[in-house]
UniProtKB/TrEMBL annotation:
This is SGNH/GDSL hydrolase family protein. PANTHER family: GDSL-LIKE LIPASE/ACYLHYDROLASE, PUTATIVE (AFU_ORTHOLOGUE AFUA_2G00820)-RELATED, GDSL-LIKE LIPASE_ACYLHYDROLASE, PUTATIVE (AFU_ORTHOLOGUE AFUA_2G00820)-RELATED. Residues 1-23, 296-321 are annotated as: Disordered. The keyword Hydrolase applies. Pfam families: Lipase_GDSL_2. Residues 27-199 form the SGNH hydrolase-type esterase domain. The lineage of its organism: Bacteria, Bacillati, Actinomycetota, Actinomycetes, Micrococcales. The keyword Nucleotide-binding does not apply. SUPFAM superfamilies: SGNH hydrolase. It comes from Microbacterium lushaniae.
């Protein structure tokens, strides 16, 4: 049997059919966790991403599952620690995914060991909640000329992440070992963020790491178009003008792409909202109608949950307990 190198290998058949134990999932991080590069007008914030995809699978397998996503694009690890850790703890999650430090490591002159110290502070605080904590290594950048020069810094940071995870009983989601996505066809035009295919593969990897059975299948990327040297250089110039120069100017001005962005899911909500919105979009509704469908679904689920809670309280009061 031959293996097509362009198609990711299917996940091994799960050995356990028991439902997963999580009911409240909070995602923390930057653009990677917010879902940038995976546009979906019907999703909160206009992006879907790997965390939404993971939440959709988890929500489909159990009742009363809720999901919050506090991630904001462009944030450095110090900002994530300051702005997201305590709000995440206050949401009382039993599952947390924490990815941070990438925006620090790619900056010239940054120290991956110093970044890891802030990472460890956040991990210690999150681990103290008793929630299952998933942390991420950075991707192996050897495949991309843009970031090949920081490969050593990423490797140093990853070793710190692994040591911190072992000391605090965390689960490691290993992007460095995810060879499938080390291919520019899994990346957006900005050459920095995953596209929909990349986010899909990360979601599959996270679910494998959590040992959660799922039906997500490998997705085939389109073949790379034939391109002359001149055309490739012209493409590089377009990328530099549209993505690299704006990024550099924001650094010089001490600005961030996330300066005026709010978390897309600041409160734990049923994931049925995203599913309903996606279904409406697939049925041909426009983005506004699809989003409205999602909101209505979330409100309906919240009302149902409140009714169940009220009914339980009435029964307990009537029984004298």
């Amino acid at each position: 049997m031959t293996t097509d190198p362009d198609v990711p290998a299917p996940d091994p058949t799960p050995t356990s059919t028991a439902p997963h134990p999580w009911r409240r999932y909070v995602a923390i991080g930057d653009s990677f966790t917010e879902g940038i590069g995976d546009p979906e007008p019907s999703s909160p914030g206009g992006h879907r991403g790997w965390a939404d995809r993971v939440a959709e699978v988890l929500a489909a397998q159990v009742d009363d599952f809720a999901y919050a996503n506090l991630a904001v694009r462009g944030k450095l690890i110090g900002q994530i620690v300051a702005d997201q850790i305590e709000p995440a703890i206050e949401l009382h999650p039993d599952l947390v995914t924490f990815s941070a430090g990438g925006n620090d490591v790619i900056r010239p002159g940054s120290d991956p060991d110093a970044v890891a110290e802030q990472f460890e502070d956040a991990v210690v605080r999150l681990s103290a909640t008793g929630a299952t904590l998933v942390v991420f290594t950075g991707i192996d950048t050897n495949f991309t000329p843009v970031f090949r020069g920081i490969r050593g810094k990423v490797a140093i940071f990853n070793e710190n992440v692994r040591a911190i995870a072992e000391a605090n009983d965390c689960i490691v989601a290993d992007q460095w070992g995810l060879k499938t996505v080390q291919d520019m066809r899994f990346f957006d035009d900005d050459r920095l963020h995953y596209n929909s295919l990349g986010h899909h593969e990360v979601a599959r990897m996270v679910l494998r790491t959590l040992h959660v059975p799922n039906d997500l299948q490998p997705m085939r990327p389109d073949p790379l178009p034939a391109m002359t040297w001149r055309a490739a250089r012209a493409n590089d110039l377009v990328w530099a003008r549209e993505h690299l120069v704006p990024w550099a100017l924001r650094r010089l001005r001490h600005q961030s792409s996330g300066d005026h962005v709010r978390p897309k899911r600041p409160e734990p909500l049923p994931v049925v909202a995203a599913a309903a919105a996606a279904a409406a979009a697939a049925a041909g509704a426009d983005a506004e109608a699809a989003a409205a469908a999602g909101v209505r679904a979330a409100e309906a689920e919240a009302r149902a949950r409140a009714a169940r809670t009220e009914g339980t309280g009435s029964e307990e009061e009537g029984s004298g307990r």
